[in-house]
From TrEMBL:
One GO MF term: dihydroorotate dehydrogenase (quinone) activity
Cofactor binding, note field: Binds 1 FMN per subunit.
Membrane topology note: Peripheral membrane protein
Encoding gene per record: pyrD
One BP term from GO: 'de novo' pyrimidine nucleobase biosynthetic process
Reactions the enzyme catalyzes: (S)-dihydroorotate + a quinone = orotate + a quinol
KW RNA-binding (keyword) present: no
Name of the protein described by the UniProt record: Dihydroorotate dehydrogenase (quinone)
Domain called Dihydroorotate dehydrogenase catalytic: residue spans: 50-336
Keywords assigned by UniProt, alphabetized: Cell membrane, Flavoprotein, FMN, Membrane, Oxidoreductase, Pyrimidine biosynthesis
Binding-site residues for substrate, renumbered to this chain: K71, N116, R117, M118, G119, F120, N176, N181, N246, T247
Length: 339
């Protein structure tokens, strides 16, 4: 029903407007007594064999929602009913910001992809914290970034502000230095500034009575030498792991007229490269740290491919938009069939 009726209807309208409309509809439907139970009965797969313990956290299943969809922690409680094992909110910055000028979100229907140049549009850390106080048992990742106006030399201060404010309300952190939509942000992926940033956050983490896992989200456009640097940095700073990967700036092999738009590309065109990065990190590090695999998962087979390449958990975003919420159930059922 989603792909035959709902998606064609939604895809007739501007993607950013549809995003806000869909949020409103999900919120409204869940407010109807009994509807959350209906969604759970349709989409959730509850089986102990799906449970995973990764970086000290217990996940009810290995399929999560990637950052970017619920930037401001508005509907994570409602999205949980679709069967996700965990939900990542953000990217959140210390201060509210509007992001880049519209139009900034583009569907590539022929390629089953999306290009976005949103630019970390969000309501700021304080608003997110107030919403996270309403958490009803959802395992939450907090994806943090810097404000656009903050120069790279002072970026660490923005990450510290987000880290401190979110610490009581999230289960793990994701340091986002790999979005292509904030000027010069990706320069923070260079070895020296990245080591300094992660070391600073990890030192703050170690001062807490109970530490929270810190992960690094990396771009798929890194070279093998840069990926080897990432392995060294993760091992040196002793952060918990890596999310591979963010969106790509590559436009190789695209068919859609929207391929000329600037921004980060997600969806099917990213599938092979993200899997390559996962496999490279897993093999070259001798599985010395966990990897969350994300990028181009549009089917259960795509998710299994990521897991086989070395991912410990997977996340979806664009696949959720193109394939609908049934995708989560399909992945979990495919994992169980292997047991």
């Amino acid at each position: 029903m989603y792909k035959s009726i709902i998606r064609p209807l939604l895809f007739k309208f501007d993607p950013e407007k549809v995003h806000h409309f869909t949020f409103s509809m999900i919120k409204t439907m869940h407010a109807i007594p009994g509807m959350k139970s209906v969604f759970k009965s349709i989409y959730q797969v509850n089986d102990k064999r799906l449970e995973r313990e990764v970086f000290g956290l217990k996940f009810k299943n290995p399929v999560g929602l990637a950052a970017g969809l619920d930037k401001d922690a508005k509907i994570y409680n409602e999205l949980d009913a679709f069967g996700f094992g965990f939900i990542e909110i953000g990217t959140i910055t210390p201060k509210p910001q509007d992001g880049n000028p519209k139009k900034r979100l583009f569907r590539l229907k022929e390629d089953s992809g999306i290009i976005n140049r949103m630019g970390f549009n969000n309501g700021g850390i304080e608003l997110a914290v107030e919403r996270l106080k309403q958490n009803k048992g959802v395992l939450i990742g907090g994806n943090i970034g810097k404000n656009k106006i903050t120069p790279n030399e002072e970026a660490v201060n923005d990450y510290i502000l987000c880290f401190d404010a979110l610490f009581p309300y999230v289960d793990y952190f994701v340091v986002n230095v790999s979005s292509p939509n904030t000027p010069n942000l990706r320069a923070l992926q260079d070895k020296e500034p990245l080591t300094e940033l992660l070391s600073t956050l990890q030192n703050k983490n170690l001062q807490q009575p109970k530490q929270k896992p810190i992960l690094l989200k990396i771009a798929p456009d890194l070279t093998n030498d840069q990926l080897l640097d990432i392995i060294d940095i993760v091992n040196d700073t002793k952060i918990a792991g890596v999310i591979a990967t963010n969106t790509t700036i590559s436009r190789e092999g695209l068919q859609s007229v929207n391929k000329v738009e600037t921004g980060g590309l997600s969806g099917k065109p990213l599938k092979n490269r993200s899997t390559e990065v996962i496999r490279f990190l897993s093999e070259k590090s001798n599985k010395s740290f966990p990897v969350i695999g994300v990028g181009g998962i549009h089917s259960a087979a795509d998710a299994l491919e990521k897991l086989d390449a070395g991912a410990d958990l997977v996340q979806i975003y664009t696949g959720f938009i193109y394939e609908g919420p049934a995708l989560i159930k399909e992945i979990n059922q495919a994992i169980l069939k292997r047991k």
